[in-house]
Amino acid sequence: MITKVWDDPAVFDIHIDLPNNPLRSLNVYVITTPEQNLLIDTGFNRHECRGALWAGIRELGLDLKKTSVFLTHLHADHTGLAGEFVAQGCPIYMGRIDYEYLDKMKNGGNVSNLEELFRSEGFSEEVLALQNRENQGRRYSVKQMFPARLVDDGTVISLGNWKIRCVHTPGHTPGHMVLYLPERQLLFSGDHILFDITPNISVWAGVPRSLEDYLSSLEKIRALPVQAAFPAHRHGGSDVPRRIDALQAHHRDRLEEICRAVAARPGSTAYEIAGTITWSARGLGWAQFPPHQKWFAMGETLAHLRYLEQHGQAVRKARGAVFAYYGV
Ligand SMILES: [Zn+2]
Fold this sequence. Notes:
With 328 residues, this protein is of the alpha/beta class. It has one domain (2-239): Ribonuclease Z/Hydroxyacylglutathione hydrolase-like (Metallo-beta-lactamase, Chain A, 4-Layer Sandwich), CATH 3.60.15. It has helices at residues 47-60, 76-79, 82-87, 96-106, 109-120, 125-134, 136-139, 210-222, 240-264, 270-274, 291-310, and strands at 2-6, 10-17, 25-32, 37-40, 67-71, 92-95, 149-151, 156-159, 162-168, 177-181, 186-190, 228-231, 315-319, 322-326.
């Protein structure tokens, strides 16, 4: 299914279902001009996504010889089908930091670091084994690393007469990029700003302050005048400052909740704390959480615990083979 979401330049949204995934669907935006097109993100490397993507491309009558692809960040629902475009000779643009991170992930490095980190924070071995089998981000990731034109903060991509600016917005991933079209004040916000759901903020190997990075990246976008924002999942919006306020309030509330949980149960591991937090998971209790949801919840809890530690609001100490948290 395709929808025209903007007139000049013409922007289309190819709706890609993500089966059995809480995100539900991905918006693949295509900015079209007579000279060139830019397609943003791809969907998972699975046949349902591949079918919907190519149906949309055919319906648009997109000339692939004039089409480039931009990948907002490394997650598999965004990069999974990059190889298909490489095979067609389409140039791929991607932020340098996420490209290098993904390159390492494909070689096993960063993923196993994170598993060890989760173990040392009390994550259940049994849940880890289950989530390794189920995690869609692993199962449907891009088959092999692909060549890309690497972009940095401020890189400008020309599309016909239009200039599109890449803005580095670390937080959801270390190298997340949004695209901004100043002449029309259009923002393609990737997973940095979503309007119906809250982007997952986790910990990353070699990234000490992912939540702080995310909150700063929100302020960076607040400084841009935006007429329309096109997020990668669910609905778009126009009141970006208001959404930024809500996202910041969400993380403030969560920081307070985790701070209270640490004070109420001193000596708990991050995993134990994650089990006491309120998660919006369609009314499921922690025990019923699917393993991959526990993995995301653990990442989110850790990102907030790191923030609390760095701001002198919690202390982390070794408790046998794992770490435990205490109030101050
Ligand atoms: Zn993502």
